[in-house]
Amino acid sequence: MTIRIGVIGAGGRGKLAWHAHRPEDDVYIVAAADPREEILGEYRNRFGESCLVTRDYRELLEAELDAVFICSPDYLHEEHACAALERGLSVYLEKPMAITTEGCDRILETSRRHGATLFVGHNMRYMRLFRKMKQLIDQGCVGEVKSIWCRHFISYGGDAYFRDWHSERRFSNGLLLQKGVHDIDVIHWLAGGYSRNVSAFGNNAVYHRLPRRRPEERGCARFDRSHWPPMAQKGFSPVIDVEDQNVVIMELENGILATYMQCHFTPDACRNYTVIGTEGRLENYGDGPESPIMLWNQ
Ligand SMILES: NC(=O)c1ccc[n+]([C@@H]2O[C@H](COP(=O)([O-])OP(=O)(O)OC[C@H]3O[C@@H](n4cnc5c(N)ncnc54)[C@H](O)[C@@H]3O)[C@@H](O)[C@H]2O)c1
What pLDDT is attached to residue 220? Predict the structure, then answer.
């Protein structure tokens, strides 16, 4: 069966869709929508003249398609996803689903109403390290889970989130959603339950104090290891109204207590999880696919 895929928000993360282009399996990228001409040129070069390229996602949705990848900035997800689902297309939608609860509800409702498949890109559930942690928990290696803690150190925070649309609440609703959505999802998944009560704090401790780029200059959100220390950096977004550090405490519906801490001005980058149960504790040392998971159970 031939599968024809369109990509909305074709630059940046949109190139994830390139993995889905498998002519040997009869799966093709046939269309791309993005306001940036250079991105559209890349699609033409890679997928040929028959690939429809357009600045307007509505034109892409007019094409003969079976599925779309939606990798546009967060504040556009609701509009793009609902338009695709209304056409009955299968949708891969990048996280976060939308930037408001109402937006998420509307996407879910549209998917159900049109019987269209929706897959939200919570890709951490598919990472080897976290699947292994989940497997150990499900095997009972720590007994009955009671606590989960996650500390998230983001060395690339200043580069990736404070130089373009991510830094504005109206576009991202904040990094606790934009970035933390991965870990809060994993916490819920490992715990087998969702949050019932939540308390959280956040502030902007570093980046709002630093020199900005002019509004007419294009932001460059590209990680550079030499950008250190944070206080010596410049060229940040003209508008920064999101937090660069957060602490969250959660009481889950199944009684498990969880914490999540996110910091965007660390020298290192790592997600460090610990899961404590009635018969042990496990913790990842490093977050690569082969990183060790330590287990204390006696
Ligand atoms: N799952 C993950 O690990 C992961 C990683 C990175 C990004 N993401 C998600 O992917 C999405 C994109 O993030 P990014 O970092 O690639 O951002 P980005 O700004 O680098 O790329 C977004 C792309 O969308 C395009 N775009 C902007 N307005 C558009 C419009 N009206 N119509 C069509 N395209 C438009 C931009 O030109 C750009 O090419 C975000 O929702 C982000 O949360 C997920």
Answer: 86
Ligand 1 mutation target, pool 94, 178, 182, most atoms within 8 A of CB: 94
CATH topology of domain 125-296: Dihydrodipicolinate Reductase; domain 2 (3.30.360)
Write the pLDDT tens digit of every residue in 215-256: 999 888 889 989 999 999 999 999 999 999 999 999 999 999
Q: Which atom belonging to ligand 1 lies closest to the Cα atom of 72?
A: 24
Distance of CA 77 to the CA centre of its chain: 12
Return the ligand 1 atom nearest residue 36 CA.
Answer: 37
Q: Where are the domains of the chain?
A: 3-121, 125-296
Give the mean model confidence (pLDDT) for residues 129-149: 98
Q: Omega of the bond prior to 23 within 30 degrees of 0, cis?
A: no
Pocket test for ligand 1, best of 13, 74, 91, 122 (most atoms within 8 A of CB): 13
pLDDT, tens digit, for every residue of 69-86?
A: 999 999 999 999 999 999
- Report pLDDT for 267: 96
Superfamily of domain 3-121 in CATH is: NAD(P)-binding Rossmann-like Domain (3.40.50.720)
Measured in degrees and rounded to the nearest 5, phi and psi for residue 126 equal -105, 0
Q: Hey, CA dihedral for 140, 143, 148, 154, is it positive or negative?
A: negative
- Measured by CA distance, the residue closest to atom 11 of ligand 1 is 71
Output phi, psi for 98, to 5 deg: -155, 180
